[in-house]
Amino acid sequence: MSTRSTTERIGEWFSGSLPSPTRGVRKLLSLVGFVAVWWLFYQFGVLNFEHFVSPWTTIVEFAGALAGQPLTEGGNTIYLHAAYSAVRVAVGVGIAAILAIPLGLVVGTSQRWESLVYPAFEALRPIPPIAWLPIAIIVLPAVAIGSVSIPLSALFVVFIGAFFPIYTNTIEGARNVESEYRRAAESLGASRTNVFRHIVLPATLPAIVTGLSLGVGLGWITVVAAELVTGGPGIGYIIIQASRLLNNQAVVIGMIGVGALGYASSALVVALGRWLTPWSET
Amino acid sequence: MSEHDTNDERTDADERSTDRTDRPDSAGDEEVRSWTESSGTGTVNIQDLTKVYGTDGDELVAVDEMDLHIEAEEFVTVLGPSGCGKSTVMECVAGYLDPTEGEVLVNGEPVDGPDPSRGVVFQENRLFPWKTINENVRFGPQMRDSVDEGRIETLFDQMGLEGFEESYPHELSGGMQQRAELARLLANDPDIMLMDEPFSGLDAMTKELMQEKLLDVWEDDDRTVVFITHDVEEAILLADRVVVMTARPGQVKDVIDVDLDRPRDTNVVTSDRFNELQRRASESIHDEAERAMEQAEGRA
Question: pLDDT per residue over A94-123, tens digit each?
Fold first, then answer.
């Protein structure tokens, strides 16, 4: 035992000659490792991290936020901010899906529609979603919910962010349907409508789910970016407001909030995908 | 100008009416159909079939003026080296491709697109992965609003698929997937079965069992089978006639009548007559296979 060096033992561990930890343990290790790196940076002042906050105070503050302590001036809790952002993401991604899926299916299956629609959208696609914000602020009205006036511009930016990944994935999926499935269906007596319904649509579903998953991810990225500009309530607003007030603790809580919500919503999309494609092998 | 057009139309219409009176029974659709049935549905007539892929300058002649007549209820195997255009011929009969020249007549009528009376089995399994075995098998009848529960049940029994109704294709073994695909085809009761190297992906044992299964199915019902293969033994074992194709551009090189007794099983391959036929087919295809290989190397 003493004759073996540490490096040898680490090598053995990686090569699997030692029993490797279970999947659950490894997942936990990933989180523990992340917190450990954060703590080390804070403790030893790597990159000025000593001015930042330690993981331990963050955990305490985060627990307080979860218990309903107001996070920002005005007394709004983390739940209210999260709810505003979540609704923006859900509605924005939802509208994007409702428009992008049918459009992608049409463009992916019909050459006539492809030449009609594809070039214009390809020109719009490279524009970063957040660059749409100035126009959105001018064009879109704010809606009043109770006494609060909510601008629709952040929601529009989410919509743009989610639209393109769903749209392009749907197109790719529809284009890549094996022609022999189509042929098989035709030889079994399927009409054009039935080929679309029974072949093209289910064959494209996995790609659509991939698009949705990317769309939701971009939805969270864009909602925070937009809220930084448009203001709150919203998680992005927590971050920018706390930063202005030099409240690093609230900044970190906002970041963790976005991370957790993004993680939860991508798990939701994965579950939706499993339910929609029960035949898939994975 | 307009007068000229009308003239053309009239000539077309005249020709069509002449066609109709040429038939023995022209009184009504039903009688016409019964006449074709009495002569046996399932004849395939390939006339002067030429298929060219690509456009000017970069053309590939896959099939060149091929002629072949297949009788109703006949089992024909098409044997040819890879890339000889045998799949192209099948795709023209199936109605997936339009011939560049010549035509394919099925029951005397030109093929116009795919039709459930011409069932197709592909080289790679083409069960719909998103449908259960049950949904796959009843897909054809469902599309035509004519689901016959008894027939579906018999097919599950005949193909040994009971208990797998709710499984998805990927949960089945290769042989079982192939049987399910055969069941899906038979559920539609096609007059003609077009099979493009359907067993080439199976292991030797499974392949043998599938060949016997196919012979059983064919002997039970009256169907025409056009079976494409590059396996000489398989070609002879199954067929009434083996059509040997040349290397590209594909043409009929040789037609070998297989006079082995039916019903056959895989034991027939040990008989002297089988060996004689196999030698003949092998000799016939040998030069073509060599040419096909040279072509493939030239392209690479």
Answer: 999 999 999 999 999 888 888 888 888 888
The answer to whether the Cβ–Cβ distance between B120 and A181 falls below 8 Å is no
B96 and A202 in contact by Cβ < 8 A?
no
Q: Which of A183, A202, A278 lies at the smallest CB-CB distance from B96?
A: A183
Indicate if A227 and A190 belong to the same structural domain. Answer: yes
Contact B111, B92 (CB under 8 A): yes
pLDDT band, very low/low/confident/very high, at A17 (cuts 50, 70, 90): low
Residue B81: per-residue pLDDT: 85
Q: At what angle do helices B174-187 and B204-220 cross, to 10 degrees?
A: 20
- Same domain, residue pair A38 and A138: no
One-letter amino acid of A217: G
- Supply the range of the domain harboring residue A120: 78-276
Tell me, rounded to whole angstroms, the distance of Cα B284 from its chain centroid. Answer: 22
ipTM over 0.90: no
Same domain, A22 and A120: no
Q: What is the pLDDT of residues B117-147, one digit of tens each?
A: 999 998 888 999 999 999 999 999 999 888 8
User: Does A209 fall in a domain?
Assistant: yes
Restricting to A residues 172-191, those with a Cβ less than 8 Å away from any Cβ of B are: 178, 180-181, 183-191
Percent of chain B with pLDDT over 70: 86
Give the chain B residue nearest A282 (alpha carbons): B170
Cβ atoms of residues B13 and B20 within 8 Å: no
Count of domains for chain A: 2
Q: Which residue of chain B comes nearest to A186, CA vs CA?
A: B114
